[in-house]
Amino acid sequence: MSIHIEKYNKNWQICIDINGLKTHLPALWLRERTLDPTQVDTKTKQRLFNPHLLDPELSISAATAGSTSIDVKFSDGYQYTYPVDYLTGLIANVDQDLPPLTPWLAETKLDATYDWQELLSNRALFLQSIKHFLRYGYIILQNTPTERDSILSIANYFGKVRDTNFGQYFEVYSKPNANDLAYTPHAIGPHTDNPYRDPVPGIQLLHCLKNHTEGGYSTLADGLSIIAALKAKDPEGFKLLTDTVVRFGFFDSGTELISFHPLIEKDALGNVSGIHYSPRLDDLPLLPEARLQHYQQARKLLGTLMQDSRFEKKFKLCTAELMMFDNNRIVHGRTAFDPRQGVRHLQGCYIDRDGLKSLYRVANRQWR
């Protein structure tokens, strides 16, 4: 890493070179990021000044670089010494302190199973489980309590339980007059939950209280891997599914929920971050016929890849096991089962994605 300070016309410019990648640091950007206790509250880290009111033509009137810091004076008279490691950390991706998203296939060997009782007594192992989740999108917990509502206490270790139209948690077993296919013995194809919500629940937990049937196998597949395969086969179709907003809806006697999302989700930086997928709940968008045909071709390819055994992990979730997965990334499903063979009873709930990321950042800082 090296720092370059050059005078251009009457003002100074600062550039940081990190492994050959040069980044210019504008005066406005630097001025806003001061850590000066007269400018930023030391406890809350919130600004005591309003950067929206800075002069758009603010410039750097003087600058000197040391081995670990850069002293900068601005045209408004303010002066501050910036630690170099602080600036380099800001230049990196906003999620650079999180484990990188790592796509996987059915054959990928992932050590995703953890003993819940061990996690409760081992902080390092608990942090490792969160790291695995953020990287691969799911974990499986064994040796969990099986009392009713136990899922809520487990969920609260990872985040705050989010209420939905199904309540704090929902029961998954075959029952008459079901308002969702999840509450029937039918097979359920790969999907994400609640795409009709805004925002969509980020993380889902499914807790097995009893499973005495021969069928009812759980399935998980990585949406990131499926999307990458789609993009490689049909780049234009990928763009259509990313740019085209579709309508999702859920309706029962007391609920009418409607929301609009593209099938393929990108984050604020333009990176593919997940998927909204449920063939039971989405509506084909109204497009010119030729464009609609191409959209349907891409949607059909996506649906075909969803069923491809290269991507799908299939396993039986047994009594006292819980799977937790990123509902915006991992598609899940279930094979059919016969309720006359025995009881299959799961409970499910949701927590938010950002809460788990916060937990990882804090734990990584405090527990190391």
What do you see in this structure?
The chain has two domains: 2-91, NE0471 N-terminal domain-like, CATH 3.30.2020; 113-366, Double-stranded beta-helix. It contains nine helices and 21 strands. It has helices at 27-32, 84-91, 116-121, 123-136, 150-158, 223-233, 235-243, 289-306, 353-366, and strands spanning 2-8, 11-18, 21-25, 60-65, 69-74, 79-83, 113-115, 138-142, 170-172, 188-191, 203-211, 218-222, 245-252, 255-262, 264-266, 272-275, 282-283, 312-315, 322-326, 330-334, 344-351. A six-stranded mixed sheet has the order 7-8-19-11-21-9. A four-stranded antiparallel sheet has the order 10-20-12-18. Helix 4 packs across helix 9 (353-366), helix 6 (223-233) crosses helix 8 (289-306) and helix 7 (235-243) packs across helix 8 (289-306). It is globular.
Helix content: 25-40%
Structural class: alpha+beta
Overall average residue pLDDT: 92
CATH class division of the largest domain: Alpha Beta
Shape: globular
CATH architecture of the largest domain: 4-Layer Sandwich
The name CATH uses for the topology of the largest domain is Double-stranded beta-helix
